[in-house]
Amino acid sequence: MKVTLIDYGAGNPTSVERALQRLGAESVRANTPDCIASASTLLLPGVGHFGTLIRALDQRRMRRPILDVIHRGVPFLGICLGLHALYASSDEAPELEGLGLVPQQVRELPRHVKLPHMGWNQLRATNPANPSRLLAGIEPAAHFYFAHSYAALASDQDDLSAATCSHGANFVAVLESRNIFAVQFHPEKSGTAGARLLQNFLRLAA
What we know:
By secondary structure, the protein is an alpha/beta fold.
């Protein structure tokens, strides 16, 4: 399987590439609309600022092909800022429009807790009767590595949230909708549990 990593010039996809390689998956970086349009599996790793990401996608004319590929049913995984990009907007750069696949807005986490939320934390399944496909086979007590100050607050969400986490407020940690998957944490930095999650995504995308 070949995974297309969206390379928008500001994030560092190297650690994700290495994690995929350890799982036996081939990856290719895409930094043009044509490369994205031909993807059979799409992954958006995100590090940094929402505004930088969105401006880069628009400057490189990537927005439309990303949306077209997702609407076509191609499996998509967004990581950290890659989750935020799916939303209509973010408090981090409210003047910019996200991809708009989720109509809500990404919010800043409460300032009464230490920001950024950085380190290991646990998840809570949103609907145990309908378990997350990404989290299949992962122990409920597993920890994942987070590094963020903004999040999609769980109180603003509909049924797209498969798991939440808490740091000053409950927020979406895993989002799933048909072929769209996204996580707030960094699976490539989350040890065995993160590797299993990436493996689950590859299996779902196969």
